[in-house]
Design a protein that fits this description.
It contains one helix and eight strands. The protein has one helix at 2-19, and strands at residues 23-27, 40-41, 48-49, 55-59, 67-71, 81-83, 95-99, 107-111. Residues 1-20 form the signal peptide.
């Protein structure tokens, strides 16, 4: 019976972890205090057209291996830069600001895979 109790506790903890996510807002300034957009889940690999943004504000940092791929044009036509493990520097807190210091980009997408080579 004790083993069943441990299994139930483990399963509950695993379900909580699996449903946890990190949210991001693209912002207009490097301190993530001005012009921040709506929060998006970093679990969503879709393309985000966020031209002119200079930083990303993270909420509920539950994941560490998230990469951010950037494109010089709208709609993510190719990759000109990839930020590796962007949530890792602020892990342990519930909120943090990550400056976008790479080349200019108009569109972005989050991914969990290793950063591929640039192809623009």
């Amino acid at each position: 019976m004790l083993s069943l109790s441990k299994l139930i506790i483990f399963t509950t903890a695993l379900a909580s972890y699996a449903s946890a996510t990190t949210y991001a807002q693209f912002c207009n300034n490097g301190d993530c205090t001005e012009g921040c957009g709506i929060s998006v889940s970093v679990d969503n690999p879709g393309c985000l057209n966020e031209n002119g943004r200079v930083a990303i504000k993270f909420h509920d940092t539950n994941l560490g291996a998230i990469n951010l791929v950037t494109s010089p044009g709208p709609d993510c036509p190719c990759q000109n830069y990839c930020y590796s493990n962007i949530v890792e520097p602020i892990k342990g807190g519930t909120e943090g600001c990550f400056p976008l210091t790479g080349p200019d980009a108009q569109s972005f997408r989050f991914q969990t895979e290793v950063c591929p080579e640039n192809n623009c």
